[in-house]
């Protein structure tokens, strides 16, 4: 069983995709959902390992409108 995630915007330099304003995905293999938070009043996304902050303003400058469909396997409970 799979869950479909539709990425509507893509930033080629950072290799990030935006599902909507609060859901960002790092499009490596496998795709990883980024943590979203507020930092000094600005919306930011945190990379998983380094913890580097990427603001939405910076990301918005290079977005390209595309449609990418991710399929993630859903882990069901064993009982």
Describe the 3D structure.
- With 79 residues, the chain is mainly β.
- 6% of the residues lie in helices and 56% in strands.
- The chain is built from 1 helix and 8 strands.
- A 5-stranded antiparallel β-sheet has the order 4-3-2-1-8, with no helix packed on it.
- It is globular and about 45 Å long.
- The chain starts with a strand and ends in a 6-residue tail after the last strand.
Strand neighbour order, sheet with most strands: 4-3-2-1-8
Distance between the amino and carboxyl termini: 16 Å
Instruction: Tell me the strand percentage band.
Output: over 45%
Can you count the beta strands?
A: 8
Element order, helices and strands? EEEEEEEHE
Report the helical percentage. under 10%
Rounded Rg:
14 Å
Spans where pLDDT lies below 50 across 5 or more residues = none
Tell me, briefly, the overall form. Answer: globular
Mean pLDDT: 93
Q: Short summary of the structure?
A:
With 79 residues, this protein is mainly β.
Label this structure with key terms.
79 residues; mainly beta; five-stranded antiparallel beta sheet; three-stranded antiparallel beta sheet; 1 helix; 8 strands
Which helices and strands occur, and which strands form pairs?
Blueprint: E1 2-11, E2 16-20, E3 23-26, E4 32-33, E5 35-39, E6 42-46, E7 53-55, H1 56-60, E8 64-73
Antiparallel strand pairs: 1-2, 1-8, 2-3, 3-4, 5-6, 6-7
């Amino acid at each position: 069983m799979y869950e479909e995630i539709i990425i509507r915007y893509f930033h080629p330099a950072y290799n990030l995709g935006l599902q909507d304003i609060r859901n960002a995905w790092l499009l490596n293999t496998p795709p990883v959902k980024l943590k979203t938070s507020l930092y000094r009043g600005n919306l930011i996304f945190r990379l998983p390992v380094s913890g580097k902050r990427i603001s939405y303003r910076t990301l918005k400058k290079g977005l390209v409108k595309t449609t990418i469909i991710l399929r993630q396997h859903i882990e069901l409970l064993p009982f």
